[in-house]
């Protein structure tokens, strides 16, 4: 029957778009629902206008805010702010770089200045040294363990002091309380990328940081199957980050938010195990005749061993170990090639142990002089320790060294 308005009959397409959607359960589902909608329906135009203007709380469009995505950000905020008396809020992003670029855009303007550790993730380095410089934001890169150098680098236009809790690949530990004091004395914010630590090891906001950022792709997701990012700060600051995110557009997808939220449930279990195995792995390889040096903050030989003990929880020193074999570049590549339990692959923080020759992968853009300055030998191999039995990882690495 053809559709006549008011007749009660509608055409097949209209019917197809008005199907029953099933009950909303009265019982609380044990798993968080995934809200995939990109847009939300309103009863009145006024309600729609009020939600968009912020006069009324609510959801309108998924790039702006989305329930599953917000739930993930607020879950990370609950973990990062666990020891704080004041509230903190989170924002989710499509990747760690999405989070970092948005935070820098939110906190700087043309003419602004950044002081950054020179030992940071390569794309964060190129974001600061390339893209942001083109927009008039200049960065001085310093040895972040040299607090006098940090003090000397800040100036009236400095908006951000930036570091990583644990740096890649030497596992250098940042003195967060001292850096917060320097940043605040200069009227700047301390922004900390805590990807390598995760809130299961260290919560930088408790030590005076203003914004903590993660590549959730790593320990938070924890299974090498989801890309995402997150930033946490006090409400007024995170509102500025949110406004920049809405304009820039790197929003996290709801299904990814669900996966990352689920990852948080096992974060302490996974990280505790990874840290314990990493410490055993580092201790077993340090002193091997084919090894020049092992970087892991659990070792008494690590320059920030004592500082790590003060900043990190539960005697957890991180899940990444960097091994510097004797014999340089070729020896390092061959060492990685002889591994049978660890897999040669990018990324970190997942269930599988991953290994990579640093000079040809994560730090391939650095020349020998820059590698030397950063304390990275040309043969260095970085291990992200996973959940395998640690004895198997140790035995595998020892055979790879012995057979060199
Ligand atoms: C310390 C650190 N920060 C940020 C990123 C960027 O994260 P994503 O790949 O999720 O954009 C990475 C990636 O390896 C990283 O190691």
TrEMBL record:
- What's a Pfam family in this record? Cys_Met_Meta_PP
- UniProt keywords, alphabetically: Aminotransferase, Pyridoxal phosphate, Transferase
Domain of life, per lineage: Bacteria
Task: List GO molecular-function terms, semicolon-separated.
Answer: transaminase activity
Cofactors per UniProt? pyridoxal 5'-phosphate
List every stretch annotated Disordered: 1-28
Please verify whether the record's keywords include Protein biosynthesis: no
InterPro entries hit by this protein: Cys/Met-Metab_PyrdxlP-dep_enz, Cys_met_metab_PP, PyrdxlP-dep_Trfase, PyrdxlP-dep_Trfase_major, PyrdxlP-dep_Trfase_small
Please report which protein family the annotation says this sequence is part of: Belongs to the trans-sulfuration enzymes family.
Q: What name goes with this protein?
A: Aminotransferase class I/II-fold pyridoxal phosphate-dependent enzyme
In its UniProt entry, the species of origin is given as: Nocardiopsis coralli
